[in-house]
Structures are given as structure tokens and as C-alpha cells.
Amino acid sequence: MNPPATIDAADFTFDGLLRDGDLVVCGQTSAEPLTLTRRLAAHCAGPSRPVRIFVGTLFSDTFDEAPASASFLSYGAIGRTVRLAERGLLDILPERYSSLPGLFSSGRLRAGVVLLQAAEAADGTLSFSLSCDYVMQAARNARLVIVELNPWAPWTHGTPWPRDLRVDIRVRAEHPPLEVPRSRIDAVSAAIGRHVAALVPDGATVQTGVGSLPDATLDALRGHRHLGMHSGILGDAGIDLIRCGALDNSRKACDAGVSVVNTLCASADGYRYADCNPGIQVRHSDYTHGAEVLGRQALLHAINGALEIDLGGQANCETLRGRPQGGIGGLLDFTRAARQSPGGRAITVLPSTAAQGKVSRIVPRLSGPATLGRSDIDVVVTEHGVADLRGASLAQRARRLIAIAAPQFRDELAAALREQETPL
Q1: Which of 212, 337, 395, 408 sits CB 3.0–4.6 Å from 294 for a disulfide?
Q2: 345 in helix, strand or coil?
């Protein structure tokens, strides 16, 4: 069957395409199909019926001004979805990232309309380009699949476009894909990065996210050799590690010679580097986050952030001072895999304070959910040092965590610990 003709963006409208009760599922992060989502935002602002949208992680400002008639669902308040949460428009699905494809394929979550971004080769072959995730399963069961063909998006290896994934409407992109530039690295992030780099041996396979802490850590690894990458996200800092020779994937237990990622979040220069590059593969999240695949990784070093950690070693990664600001994402998938990996480490990073130094992020008791339990926590790093919690008793954990808290809060934390230890 021949594919549908590609129409110009100027000729595309959502009028008549959406039905009552539809869940519109959009490609996320850098894979957000900006031409389509901006049309959708404009449609929501008009005299239309309420629209429900699954957005995943948002790095664009597309829905910043969404009307109250629109509602949003996501697996966390990550990126600019925080703004939707603050306006009361966001409902959160507290699921691991690896669980999302199964929720769509089973029908527990059902998409009415799916909006995807893709790259197209000269022979017409499509590539998922910057990300391959639950949106594929959502599209398989959707009533309507709309694909934005983006000539500026890189054609990436890793996940062939499935023969059974139909495309109902093809729209020519009018915007390059969203760029996610490197974060500004301050003194705190740089110090944390140096501490983490000292924990990572040559030959380790690393996983990180995006932001100043991951970027600072990857920058601090430039003197390492034979690093590997198996991660949810690859950005400019990781690409720079490849370019400088520190990250060559030569010692990976599986996928040797290849950086395996679920999403590329980089600059236009980073996208050009990934274009048709067989050394960078964008794999589906079933592969990048799957327990069976992660279980084959040796020396896996998972480096992830937290919002606060209590003195027993539990980490809250979802809310800060009662407000949604984060999510489970791939945190549990990678943290638990790294703890089981031979020679691996699950490294949790966070600044010691929030609110310009007025609030300690190491606390007697969490103010939100325990995203990571005490048996998940491995090594904690702040700008003040490293707390190794592996095999440590509760009393040892508390003392080690107090030692890496901000100095102005250590006495207060010690007093809280003594109070907890005092029998009633």
C-alpha cells in the first residue's frame, strides 16, 4: 500500500479530527512534533470541546498557555510540565517508564490520536529519529496516527519502523526539532560531577539524564577511557565524550561499540553528529529500560538525581515542598539494575540545599513519597562529598548522610537523629 501524500503544514488543521473522549498522545522531549503540537495548542485555545493530552516530558513551551478546558496526563512533572501542574491541569501517572508501553498495548491506556515526529530517508524509509518509546504502542492501537516528517531531524539507527505501524496523515514539518542545549554548570554541579567521576572506573557503562548535574558529571569523565553508554538520554555532553575518545563502548558486555539510548536531547550540531551514525542507536524503551537487557550490563553506573533524601536513605524524586516536581521515570529501572550489575553502582546526586541555601535537601523525614526505598539507595553524592550506604546500618547511614549535608544544617540533623533514637 502506498503511503498517504504528505501535506504542507499550512494546509493541516485538527478540525473534524478529534472526537469526544479522545486521548491525544504526543511525542515527548526533543521528539515532540512541534508543527503538530502547536496546531493542537491553537485548536485547544479556540471554541473547541475539552481535549485530554498525554505529553510525557515537556521541554518546549507549546502548552504553557493552554486553556483550562485542556487537561494533561504525564508520568511525572518533569521539565515544563511543572507549569501545567502548578495550574492544576496535570494529572500524574505514577508508573515506571518501562511500564508505559505495556499500559498502551494492553488497552489500560488507550490513545485516540497519536502525534509522532519522524525522519525520512531518500528511499522513503522512516526513522523514529530522536526517540522511540511508548508512543509506538499507543499508535498501534490508536484510531488516528499523524506523523510529522521533519527534514531537519536526524535519521538514526536502532529501531526499524514496524511494518504494522500505519500512518494515516503525513504532515511536512515547518520547524526543526526542538534543541536541548547544554545546561549552565555552576560550582555546586561541578563539585558533584568531580565526586561522581571519582567513583566511575574506566570501562564502566554509564546512564545519566539531562540537566546541569548530568552534564557536569559527563564533563568530569573526559579523562576516563573505554566508557560505554546505555542510557535513557544522550545529549551534547555525552556526544562530546564520544568525540574526545573517552566513550568508545569497547568494553560493554553487550552492544559493544555502540552507544544505546532511548532519546537524543541535544543541539542541532549534536543531531547532525547522530545522523546516519551507526555508533549511536536509538532503541525502543523496552530495550533501553528492560530488566532483561539491563541485567546483562556489567559495570553499570546509573547516575540519577533526587529532590531530597532522609537520614535512613530513602529518596523523594517526585515532589518538593508539597508541589509536583519530578517523577519516577526510568529511575527505578536503572537504579535497581545498577545495584545488581557486577561492579556497578547506583549513584544518587543532589545539591545539599534548595531555596538559595535556606532548605536542606537531606532531611530527617521526607516531605513526599519514597520513590527510592532504603534497599534501593547505594551511593549518595552532594557537593560536600560521598556517602556510601552499601551494607551500612541505619545509624551509619545517618552519620554518613549528615557528613555530606550543608554545614549549616548538620547540627540540626544530628539533633533530629538523636530525637529519633530516643525511646518514648
Answers
A1: 337
A2: strand
